[in-house]
Amino acid sequence: MEVVATVKRQPTLGPAHTAELPIETALTSYLHVLLNANIFEGLSRSAMLQELSHMDRITQLQDEIQQLLMIMSNTIAYLTSRANFLQVSPEIPVTKQRNPEKFDAPDVFEANQKELVTDLIVKAKQIEYLINSLPEPEPEEEQAKRLRTLEDDMTVANAEYIRAVNRAKDLHSQISEVLKMMLEETDGIELKDEGNER
Asked: Which domain of life does this protein belong to (predicted)?
């Protein structure tokens, strides 16, 4: 089954409208940037595509969870704002009624409830599919090894940075000394010329 990247707009009520694009198309521009930046240096094209696919699925999962929360919020808002007051206990009478335009007819209310439930189920299934498509967690030993490698690389990079800063300071000092000597020589020549003129 081909994994697709989805772009969805969720209305207040009703099913989501979905436009589907293959991940290959969505990731083409990313690949050019990453190849130029050497972010995945040493990895093959298939490995880079796989890595990007995992990243894209995580992004999709975040979007789907946000949409699920939005559907839940819309559901609660609809159920609390478009329902009429009903008597649930013989001992507690209903003392207030809403205007007819403030609540939906029973058949419309029931249909909208079913539609909202369907939206929730569909979105939950989409989230479940994305979670199941994520890669297995990396073993702890591999994580520790990778972190040690990154730490070593950072140590080397930091040492190179310190050397570069020290070299820049040395060059700055040398240039300052040369400029100072040139200015002193210029001042000496000017004073000598003034003495000769007198």
From this structure: Eukaryota
Candidates 8, 34, 11, 9; CA nearest to 21 is 8
CA distances from 147 to 22, 58, 123, 142, 150 (A): 33, 21, 36, 8, 5
pTM: 0.45
Tell me the pLDDT tens digit for each residue of 52-90: 566 678 888 899 999 999 999 999 998 888 887 777 788
What are the Cα distances from residue 76, in Å, to 13, 71, 121, 193?
12, 9, 15, 93
The whole-angstrom separation of Cα 164 and Cα 76 is: 60
* Cα–Cα dist 165/188, whole Å: 35
Evaluate the CA torsion angle 9, 15, 20, 26 in order and state its sign: positive
Calpha distance 52→27 (Å, rounded): 7
Domain ranges, ordered by start, for the chain: 1-84+102-135, 143-198
The DSSP call for residue 8 is: E
